[in-house]
Write a sequence for this structure.
């Protein structure tokens, strides 16, 4: 999706039109227009924002009372040049299914109604491989439903949320042909995949290429906790084929924020708690290195972890559900870790006895 706008202010001071006690801080410009990166036919910010939490009550504790602050997060991001927002048609639990797309569309309209800004907004949404989506036309209809929720005419990047190769291989062809149809009908500007492992990534790239459809992006879990053999092979394939890797969970679901330690009593509730208890005890070398580098560089621990993803040539999409998180994430831009610091972090990451569990839907 592209929205034509013109910037009126170069900075990040924004007062929301919605009354709120939340104070939005003034943040210096974090990157310049020429530092944008290519993503298919579009130019996007070096980092995007993920909206998984927008509507997810089970994992992220979403409540509709958060919507005012979420709008402020969106405004703050766009004011600072962030123009890539990742969502999915399955984001939102229970009756809130699709809530993330609805909110994102609303925030864009309400922002436009207040002011004009200079960057085109790129929406990247993902289409779930539900078992009842068995034909290409059903994926086209899924795309049209997302367009309705977002209230836009075209999506920037239409992505398959996961591959069915591991459990329903006959459905896989319908997914691929669905992407081709979306692209040919002009419903999306570019296509991508999510949670595709190395072998399936090569297969779908070749399949789409034969049909004149370029594969623009591959989204996988990628961070200092997710840099195993498969993830690095995916990165290598993307580099060689001109596919942009989008790294989700760049903060390891929060384990790389420095907020949690093996002995702390404030672990998150819900499904994340069990994962944290399994992995955090072995993360001390990495957390120590993150803290050491953050103090030397005058940055926060999350900023260092996100910057590592940027230095590896990926576009990280950290999730945000508070203005404070958004402000901190923006500080990951406009600078780069030194080669020695990258080596230090990656060595420390290899010392962890337990790694982040990869998404169960990621194929080989």
């Amino acid at each position: 999706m592209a929205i034509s706008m013109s910037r009126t202010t170069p900075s990040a001071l924004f007062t929301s039109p919605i009354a709120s006690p939340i104070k939005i801080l003034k943040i210096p410009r974090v990157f310049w227009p020429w530092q944008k990166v290519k993503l298919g036919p579009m130019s996007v910010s070096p980092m995007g924002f993920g909206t998984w939490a927008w509507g997810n009550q089970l994992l992220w504790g979403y409540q509709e009372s958060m919507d005012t602050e979420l709008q402020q997060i969106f405004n703050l991001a766009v004011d600072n040049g962030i123009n890539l927002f990742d969502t999915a048609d399955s984001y939102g639990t229970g009756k809130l299914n699709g809530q993330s797309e609805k909110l994102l569309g609303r925030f864009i309209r309400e922002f436009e109604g207040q002011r004009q800004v200079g960057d085109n907004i790129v929406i990247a949404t993902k289409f779930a491989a539900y078992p009842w989506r068995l034909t290409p036309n059903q994926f086209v209809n899924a795309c049209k439903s997302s367009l309705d929720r977002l209230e836009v005419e075209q999506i920037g990047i239409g992505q398959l949320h996961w591959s069915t190769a591991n459990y329903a291989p006959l459905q896989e062809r319908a997914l691929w042909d669905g992407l081709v149809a979306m692209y040919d009908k002009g419903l999306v500007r570019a296509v991508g995949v999510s949670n595709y492992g190395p072998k399936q990534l090569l297969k779908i790239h070749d399949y789409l290429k034969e049909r004149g459809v370029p594969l623009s992006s591959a989204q996988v879990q990628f961070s200092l906790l997710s840099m195993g053999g498969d993830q690095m092979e995916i990165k290598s394939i993307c580099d060689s084929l001109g596919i942009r890797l989008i790294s989700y969970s760049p903060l390891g679901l929060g384990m790389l924020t420095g907020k949690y330690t093996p002995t702390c009593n404030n672990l998150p509730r819900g499904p994340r708690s069990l994962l944290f208890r399994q992995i955090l005890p072995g993360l001390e070398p990495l957390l120590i290195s993150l803290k050491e580098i953050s103090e030397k560089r005058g940055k926060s621990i999350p900023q260092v972890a996100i910057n590592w993803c940027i230095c590896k040539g990926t576009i990280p999409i950290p999730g945000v559900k508070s203005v404070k998180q958004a402000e901190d994430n923006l500080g990951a831009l406009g600078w780069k870790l030194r080669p020695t610091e990258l080596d230090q972090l990656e060595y420390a990451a290899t010392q962890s006895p337990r790694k982040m569990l990869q998404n169960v839907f990621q194929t080989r």
User: Anything to note?
Assistant: Residues 99-114 form the longest helix (16 residues). The chain has one domain: 34-350. The longest strand covers residues 188-194. Strands lie at 37-39, 42-44, 49-50, 84-86, 122-127, 155-160, 188-194, 215-221, 244-248, 315-316.
